[in-house]
């Protein structure tokens, strides 16, 4: 009887061990899923889809869900969601990676606190050593992965001598009624850059890197300029129009309805490479420059999938990841060009960026957009 009991006990233990092994094996086969929150124009989505496809091919154990919010469509952004989660005292969040600009980082740190983002471990992201740029606002919690800027796009067949300064640009607009357009700034960054540049060109340089409400008192001169220029912008059916989204003004330029617009350099270069824009469309920068800067990726402290997120970060700044961003989006790479194929670097030929003019004004940007809607968009 005793041996029988021992046999039964041994069998029970063996089944338990095997059951545990089965569970461990099942867990090992499960994919880690991370959520990447980003947004913008359609070229951003296209580039990210290509990057993620290449990443997941090399990392079949990681599934990446792209949560993309198109410009001008409204809805809660990843930044808004993160701030709300921290304020609500949540213990975790479904955002594992979040694309941000320096202006977003100022908001996150200001409203959610410095500890809301995880410092990025160099040991788990070894390609960090190849990155040339650092985020002034994000420090070691933000990974710079591509550059972007707004330039002046124009029809060289109609504009023989493009403006070189902001003052010359405003004079050109007055002398050529209806031939310039900028998109509704609440629907795309190119129009937003035009508006913010108009306001902050008339303010001390330090204002462009401050979220202090005191600077609102100095916005009047810039808004007065926008009101004065309003009648000279593109018109349809006898009324001034501010097209929706960045693509809206690019379409006007492509169709010859206007001769000059502010535009994201990457969008113009990408569409020219695909034959979607006339060869006569050229790019130039003015002084002071339109705002632009670097895009960053951050990992929220509340993320439960940090190791997988770090693997994606490491791929994004690898030569392969950077090549895809250049080829699909015409983004400015953040690693040494010598690490990229010559034919890839050649795709940025003609892009002469003297320097990024980054703005980090936090929620003041939202207030500017609200004032634009009430004071400019309503003008007849």
TrEMBL record:
Pfam families: SBP_bac_8. InterPro entries: SBP. This is Putative spermidine/putrescine transport system substrate-binding protein. It comes from Hydrogenispora ethanolica.
């Amino acid at each position: 009887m005793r041996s029988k009991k021992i046999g039964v006990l041994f069998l029970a233990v063996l089944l338990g061990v095997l059951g545990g092994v089965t569970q461990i094996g099942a867990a090992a086969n499960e994919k880690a899923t991370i959520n990447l929150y980003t947004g913008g124009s359609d070229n951003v989505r296209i580039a990210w889809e290509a990057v993620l496809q290449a990443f997941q091919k090399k990392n079949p154990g990681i599934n990446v869900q792209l949560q993309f919010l198109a410009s001008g469509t409204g809805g809660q952004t990843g930044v808004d969601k993160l701030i709300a989660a921290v304020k609500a005292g949540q213990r975790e969040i479904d955002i594992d990676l979040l694309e941000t600009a320096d202006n977003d980082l100022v908001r996150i740190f200001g409203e959610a606190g410095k500890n809301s983002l995880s410092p990025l471990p160099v040991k788990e992201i070894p390609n960090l050593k190849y990155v040339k740029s650092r985020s002034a606002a994000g420090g070691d919690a933000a990974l710079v992965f591509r550059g972007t800027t707004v330039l002046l796009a124009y029809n060289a067949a109609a504009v023989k001598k493009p403006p070189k300064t902001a003052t010359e640009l405003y004079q050109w607009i007055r002398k050529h009624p209806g031939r310039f357009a900028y998109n509704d700034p609440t629907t795309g960054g190119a129009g937003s850059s035009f508006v913010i540049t108009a306001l902050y060109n008339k303010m001390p340089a330090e204002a462009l890197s401050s979220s202090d409400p005191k600077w609102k008192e100095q916005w009047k001169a810039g808004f007065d300029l926008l009101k004065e220029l309003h009648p000279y912008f593109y018109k349809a059916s006898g009324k001034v129009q501010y097209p929706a989204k960045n693509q809206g003004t690019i379409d006007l330029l492509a169709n010859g309805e206007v001769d000059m617009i502010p535009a994201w350099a990457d969008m113009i270069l990408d569409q020219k490479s695909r034959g979607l824009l006339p060869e006569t469309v050229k790019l130039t920068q003015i002084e002071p420059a339109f705002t632009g800067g670097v895009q960053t990726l951050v990992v929220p402290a509340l993320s439960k999938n940090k190791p997988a997120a770090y693997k994606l970060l490491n791929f994004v700044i690898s030569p392969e990841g950077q090549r895809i961003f250049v080829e699909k989006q015409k983004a400015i790479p953040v690693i040494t060009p010598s690490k990229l194929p010559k034919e890839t670097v050649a795709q940025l030929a003609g892009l002469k960026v003297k320097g990024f003019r980054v703005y980090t004004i936090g929620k003041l940007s939202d207030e500017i957009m609200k004032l634009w809607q009430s004071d400019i968009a309503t003008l007849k």
